[in-house]
Design brief:
Elements (H helix, E strand, L loop, with lengths): L12 H13 L1 H7 L4 H10 L17 H14 L1 H7 L5 H4 L4 H7 L8 E14 L2 E11 L7 E8 L7 E6 L4 E3 L13 E11 L3 E3 L15 H27 L16 H33 L6 H27 L2 H5 L4 H12 L8 H10 L10
Parallel strand pairs: 1-3
Antiparallel strand pairs: 1-2, 2-6, 3-4, 4-7, 5-6
Helix pairs in contact: 4-5, 4-8, 5-8, 8-9, 8-10, 8-12, 9-10, 10-12, 10-13
């Protein structure tokens, strides 16, 4: 059986529980302002969310992927947007491709650096003396309102150049509050705007480039982990939805004298099926994670087949959890349909997760190709 989050690793049980309770009580505040409040971001820093994957040599905690994912899962049960923003504590997986001297600057004062990135669409960058001159607009920079460093996707204007990410201090980046979506409203995934900024080449890296850090986590597939940290938010949301529906079962009988929700056969069937979906998907997800990590701990790297299972279990988790939420939402009646009811928010958040490119239908095609011994599309593994 896969355990839940070990709260002792995240500020201790009392502090972690207090954080979850604060998040639950302030969900409407976050949604109204369309971002997570700064004091919550600072508490994420305090309990170790942003130093979790930073190498010990830079003052970080070097936690395992599963430990990090279970933390995001727990926060997501309290609020999907908060979990999504916390998930970007995985940023060392990106930043580790920076030169070693640059990384020393990034984590010089603290390993608790909050990073947010807008990768798409990559914008042309003019090569200038030992760096790049960049301007442009980038979408979907989740968590940017609380970030101290921002990354933007660039494509150098030279033949054969590979896409890069340029890293800038927050004060060189403007935020245009464009995020207006069905769900995950409080992630603050706004547009980043940069006008005629100079970025030294040492503060850029090739996306997907080899890490300059030698630590076990940086042998874990970074693209797979980037998908996992987002997908696991749906797991927290689904668990919360099932708990909410169970709590509704004790309500009084309807005005017509019909049995309460927990006594209705169709609701019992829906909850049973939803529990099976969530528990099975969670087991597959963490089994795949731990198998890949075990290969690394043994001194090797995850096999092609193991990486495929990481990607497959991630999309499977997202879609099964979103379906489980829909299952129990349908039996909640008009009570759950109220915009102020937790099930309504959970439904919106979980459905938005299924729209992310990492968790799209193409995963099934790529996974199947590998099972048949063929190559997947570029960018899958």
């Amino acid at each position: 059986m896969h355990t839940t989050v070990d709260k002792s690793q995240w500020g201790g049980e009392a502090r972690f529980d207090a954080l979850l309770e604060a998040i639950r009580h302030r969900r409407e505040e976050f949604e109204a302002q369309r971002h997570i409040s700064q004091d919550i971001i600072e508490e994420f820093q305090a309990i170790g969310v942003y130093r979790a994957m930073v190498p010990a040599s830079y003052g970080g905690d070097e936690k395992s992927p599963a430990e990090f994912l279970k933390m995001v899962e727990a926060i997501s049960a309290a609020d999907g947007s908060a979990g999504w923003v916390a998930s970007f504590g995985m940023n060392p997986a990106y930043l580790a491709a920076l030169p070693e001297e640059t990384l020393k600057e990034v984590w010089r004062d603290s390993p608790d650096v909050v990073f947010a990135g807008g990768i798409f669409p990559p914008q042309p960058a003019e090569r200038v003396d030992r760096g790049f001159r960049i301007s442009g607009r980038w979408k979907f920079a989740s968590g940017c309102m609380g970030a101290s460093l921002c990354g933007v996707g660039i494509l150098p204007e030279e033949e054969g150049a590979l896409p890069r990410m340029a890293v800038l201090p927050r004060d060189q980046v403007a935020i245009d509050p464009t995020w207006d979506m069905l769900g995950m409203v409080a992630t603050g995934s706004h547009d980043l705007v940069v006008e005629d900024a100079y970025v030294p080449e040492a503060w850029t890296f090739v996306r997907g480039g080899k890490p300059t850090v030698d630590a076990p986590f940086f042998r874990y597939p970074s693209l797979s982990f980037a998908a996992q940290v987002l997908a696991v938010t749906t797991l927290g949301l689904a668990r919360e939805a099932l708990d909410v529906v169970r709590a509704m079962a004790g309500g009084r009988k309807s005005v017509t004298g019909a049995p309460n929700l927990g006594e209705r056969e169709y609701a019992q069937i829906a909850l049973g099926k939803a529990e099976a979906r969530v528990r099975a998907a969670r087991a597959f997800f963490y089994d795949s994670t731990e198998a890949a990590w075990a290969a690394i701990e043994a001194g090797g790297e995850p096999s092609r087949e193991q990486v495929n299972l990481l990607r497959l279990s991630t999309t499977h988790l997202t879609q099964e959890c979103a379906e489980a939420v829909r299952d129990v939402y349908r039996v909640s009646g008009m009570t759950g349909a109220d915009n102020g009811h937790p099930l309504s928010r959970i439904l919106r958040d979980s459905q938005l997760c299924t729209q992310h490119a990492f968790m799209g239908e193409i995963t099934w095609k790529n996974a199947g190709a590998i099972f048949f011994g063929h190559d997947p599309l570029p960018g899958y593994l």
